[in-house]
Amino acid sequence: MPTLFPLPDPVTIPIVGEGNTFPIHRIFCVGRNYEAHAKEMGNEVDRAAPWYFTKSPASAALSGAVVPFAKATQNYHHEVELVLAIGAVASDISVVDAPSAIFGYASGLDMTRRDLQAKSKEGRKPWCTAKDVENGAVFSPITRAVDFAPKDQRIHVSVNGDVRQDASLAEMVWSPAEVIAHLSTLYTLRPGDLIMTGTPAGVGQVQPGDKIHGGIDGLSDVVLTLT
Ligand code: MN
């Protein structure tokens, strides 16, 4: 049956060295997965279990995008993150088996309306509008898992050439396998799911006209320009 109206084409992510792309099913994000970032936000890491928020696939953008500055914020922040691209169905998967569910890895930007997040925290309200921002989930091309193993690679981001975040993947509190195993107790993970694994210390404000350049050694860079 014909649909009533057209929707924008969904964003699909290029795969390094291949002609096909990775369609996005859902976007999960891990909160406070680097102790130094939790501290800079005035929080402690919860070592009992990882926890999550989500972004809509409609908020996705690809590296290289030139997009309007976010609406309704005076404090828009960059967060550079390792992204896991899920390539298999995984439900209640063990930490040992979890890596088999990973299709590949990307560099990502979890763009955040920090002022709205602060208000949400004050009012004990959800973070949705702070985190689910149009063009605010930005992804580099995906490197297949056979070509990358997360360990202690450098993760960094610069704004207009000034380094703002510079850390190691070894600082993650919960490893990719631990995150997948835990998240798979809450959801049946499916191919197309993306997991943004949290950001290191050094998050900060961006302005209209800024160019944000993130990267993880061994993966493609993620670049976003705000107009
Ligand atoms: Mn984040």
What is the ordering of alpha helices and beta strands? EEEHEEEEEEEHHEEEEHEEEE
Strand count, sense and barrel status of the largest sheet are: 8 strands, mixed
Report low-confidence residues grouped into runs of 5 or more: none
| Coarse shape | globular
Say which molecules are bound, naming each kind only once.
manganese (II) ion
Average pLDDT, to the nearest integer? 97
How many structural domains? Answer: 1
Helix and strand composition category: mainly beta
- Bin the strand percentage: 25-35%
Notes on the structure:
There is one protein chain. By secondary structure, the chain is mainly beta. The chain has a single domain, classed as Fumarylacetoacetase-like, C-terminal domain (Fumarylacetoacetate hydrolase, domain 2, Alpha-Beta Complex), CATH 3.90.850. It contains four helices and 18 strands. It has helices spanning 35-40, 114-122, 128-131, 176-183; strands at 12-14, 21-23, 27-30, 52-55, 60-62, 65-67, 76-78, 80-86, 102-110, 112-113, 137-139, 143-144, 154-159, 162-168, 194-196, 204-206, 211-216, 222-226. The strands form four sheets. Strands 3, 4, 5, 8, 9, 11, 12 and 15 form an eight-stranded mixed β-sheet that branches. It has a five-stranded mixed β-sheet with strand order 6-18-17-13-14, with no helix packed on it. The N and C termini lie far apart (39 Å). The mean pLDDT is 97. Bound molecules: manganese (II) ion. The site of manganese (II) ion has 7 residues, from loops.
